[in-house]
C-alpha cells in the first residue's frame, strides 16, 4: 500500500498508538490480535466478499500458526470502507461471530465520524474485554504475532 494513502487516515503516531494498544491488551489475554489494512481490492478480488478477503489475509498473515489457535484479525478494506473481524478456531468456538460483527460495526460508526485511530483502538479494547474473560493470559505466554499494523 502506498504510504501516502494510509496517511490520509492515520499518522505515524496513531499507528504507533494502535500497536501499543495491541501490546497492552495482549498482557491481559493469551489471544493474539493483528490489524491488517488493505487499500483496495485487486482485479482478482473484485467479486470476493469482505469475509473472503479477511480469510485470505488470515492465511497469509500466519495467524493460524499461533500455538493455541487464538488469533484474531481486524481486517480493514479502505476503498470500500468495510471491516471484518475474524477469529481462529479456538476463539470462534467460544465467541459467536455476531459479537465480533457488532464490534466491527461500532468501529465503522467511529470511522464515519472521521476518527480512524479511535475506531481501531476502541475495537481492540472491546476485543480485550471479551478475550481476557475467555482466554486469560497464561504464565508461559509469548507474543507470537507482531503488534505492528500490517499493510496488504
Question: How would you sum up this structure, described in words?
Answer:
The chain is α/β, with parallel strands linked by helices. It has 6 helices and 4 strands. The protein has helices at residues 3-6, 12-25, 50-61, 89-92, 97-112, 116-134, and strands spanning 32-38, 71-77, 82-87, 150-151. The chain has a 4-stranded mixed sheet. The longest helix is centred in the last third of the chain and has 19 residues, at 116-134. The model has no long low-confidence stretch (mean pLDDT 91). InterPro entries: TPM_dom (IPR007621). Residues 8-129 form the TPM domain. This is Putative membrane protein. It holds the Pfam family TPM_phosphatase.
Structure described in brief:
This protein has 152 residues and is α/β, with parallel strands linked by helices.
Question: How is the topology of this model organized?
Answer:
Layout: H1 3-6, H2 12-25, E1 32-38, H3 50-61, E2 71-77, E3 82-87, H4 89-92, H5 97-112, H6 116-134, E4 150-151
Parallel strand pairs: 1-2, 1-4
Antiparallel strand pairs: 2-3
Helix pairs in contact: 2-6, 5-6
CATH topology: Diaminopimelate Epimerase, Chain A, domain 1
> Helix and strand string, N-terminal first?
HHEHEEHHHE
| Inertia-based shape | globular
Poorly predicted residue ranges: none
How many extended strands?
A: 4
CATH architectural type: Roll
Largest beta sheet, briefly?
A: 4 strands, mixed
Q: Tell me the β content.
A: 5-15%
Across the major sheet, the strand order is 3-2-1-4
Helix content: 40-55%
Question: What labels would you give this structure?
Answer:
152 residues, alpha/beta, Diaminopimelate Epimerase, Chain A, domain 1, 6 helices
Amino acid at each position: 500500500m502506498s504510504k501516502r494513502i494510509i496517511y490520509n487516515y492515520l499518522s505515524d503516531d496513531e499507528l504507533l498508538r494502535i500497536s501499543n494498544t495491541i501490546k497492552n491488551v495482549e498482557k491481559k489475554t493469551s489471544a493474539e490480535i493483528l490489524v491488517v489494512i488493505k487499500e483496495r481490492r485487486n482485479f482478482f478480488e473484485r467479486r470476493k466478499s469482505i469475509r473472503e478477503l479477511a480469510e485470505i489475509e488470515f492465511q497469509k498473515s500466519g495467524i493460524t500458526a499461533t500455538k493455541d489457535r487464538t488469533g484474531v484479525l481486524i481486517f480493514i478494506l479502505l476503498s470500500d470502507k468495510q471491516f471484518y473481524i475474524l477469529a481462529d478456531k479456538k476463539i470462534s468456538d467460544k465467541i459467536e461471530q455476531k459479537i465480533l460483527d457488532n464490534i466491527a460495526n461500532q468501529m465503522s460508526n467511529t470511522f464515519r465520524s472521521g476518527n480512524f485511530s479511535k475506531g481501531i483502538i476502541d475495537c481492540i479494547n472491546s476485543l480485550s474485554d471479551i478475550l481476557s474473560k475467555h482466554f486469560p493470559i497464561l504464565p508461559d505466554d509469548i507474543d507470537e504475532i507482531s503488534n505492528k499494523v500490517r499493510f496488504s
